[in-house]
Amino acid sequence: MNIRYVHQFSLLNQVFLFLLLQTLFMSTVCAQEIVVKDIPSLDKLPVKAIHRIFQDSDGYIWYGTFNGLCRSDGYDVRVFRSDLFHHGLLDDNYITYINEDHEKHIWFGTFQGAYILDKATYRITPVNMGNVSDRNVFSINVTRDGTIWVSTSGSLFRYDANGELLKRYPVEYNHSSQFVYTVYENKDDHLLISITQGGMYKLNKETDSFEPYFHHEEYRDIEKIIWDETHQCYWLGTWGKGIVRFNPEEQSPERQYIPQPLPVDVTGEATGDTYHMVQDDVYHYLWVTTKKDLFAFRITKDKMLEQVDTSSFLTPGNKMLYEIYKDRDGKLWVSAFDMESFIIDIRKHFIKKIYFACFERADKGEPGYYLFMYGQ
Questions:
Q1: Is 134 helix (H, G, I), strand (E, B) or coil?
Q2: CATH number assigned to the domain comprising residue 133
Q3: Strand (E) or helix (H) holding 355
Q4: On the CB side of 355, how many CA atoms lie within 13 Å of its CA?
Q5: Interval 179-192: pLDDT, tens
Q6: What letter would DSSP give residue 264?
Q7: Is 310 left (phi over 0), alpha (psi -120 to 50) or beta?
Q8: What is the average per-residue pLDDT within 14-26?
Q9: In a designed cystine with 54, which of 62, 137, 143, 215 is the match (CB 3.0 to 4.6 A)?
Q10: Domain range spanning residue 244?
């Protein structure tokens, strides 16, 4: 521990000091701040417009851009793409998704298929997707058992850790091919998926097929599912309806889905089109990227959302933002199309102990006081 502050108090200040110490004695003080920072090595990317951001198990940051997959160590950037020096490495350089399997291989998607990158050798291998014609990869998810799920239009592919194709599930709604937004394991270890225009489905492990899960006509485009441990509820980020609180244990559909206030931009216009959503680890705000801007919501005691004023750290105005990604340290990485991407660092500072000591001053033989503040 380090002494952060030391001060000698005269006898005239003893009464005030006593009252102060009544409040602070042996207490913990917390200070919080939100800081917006630049993304390291952004100028070393092939393009500044970032589509995807991902942190792997070794701490490296990966960027999916319109012109290649990039890996940053905070100082240098390595780019993987097809170009004059690496002809045919990828069928398409537009990176649509990034994830990591349990064997520390990087899986990434493009408009023309998915690939596996071996971090030890940097070898890139195309993923077997059978004979499907549309190979635009919409999402890649990894579940706790090590299974990798890859979504394209009309198909959800299931792979093992070796990249072997185990099964292809058709993805349709009203006889029309759809994408899978996300594959999500809930708190009861049930596997849920949400599909474009079709709502949520749950995997029936006995039949190995997906069945409708609490469908609601108003909430069919569910892009993100978050379990809020602090408030014991689900938050759904939707396309068109904003954020919705979800409780599958309610009996009536009206109580299962509780709509929340839509984000309102600087012009006073509301938007319900959610791109991505995360919950921070400090304030437990919900942070949402939309086609208008980045918005934050605090959660009230009655589990309703209240928009947070972000003008103190974000420049007001319409921004073309896409993904918001939370790294292992709790920082929020925001990818942008029409401006430089940035990091939101929500910091929490602690002062662990505060106490004072009494001593006798050698020069005057009267008591003096020191206030010691120990922190981290």
A1: coil
A2: 2.130.10.10
A3: strand 342-360
A4: 5
A5: 999 999 998 899 99
A6: B
A7: alpha
A8: 48
A9: 62
A10: 38-281+295-344
The helix/strand/coil state of 102 is: coil
- Residue 256 placed within a domain: yes
Indicate if 370 and 232 belong to the same structural domain.
no
- The phi, psi pair for 239, rounded to 5°, reads -100, 110
Specify the higher pLDDT residue, 8 or 132. Answer: 132
Pairwise CA distance, residues 220 & 11, whole Å: 70
Q: Which amino acid is at 198?
A: G
Overall domain count for the chain: 2
- Please, what's the b/e burial string for 200-221 (b: 16 or more CB within 10 A of its CB; e: otherwise)? bbbbeeeeeebeebbebeebbb
Handedness of CA 190, 191, 195, 201 (dihedral sign): negative
H or E stretch at 107: strand 105-110
Note whether 352 and 28 are within 8 A (CB).
Answer: yes
The CA distance from 220 to 234, in Å, is 16
Structure tokens at 140: 């890649």
| Residues 159 and 144: beta-carbon distance below 8 Å | no
Global pTM reads 0.84
231, 304 Cβ separation under 8 angstroms: no
The residue type at 227:
W
Distances (CA, A) of 35 to 100, 146, 314, 345: 28, 36, 9, 5
Q: Which 3 state secondary structure label does DSSP give 366?
A: coil
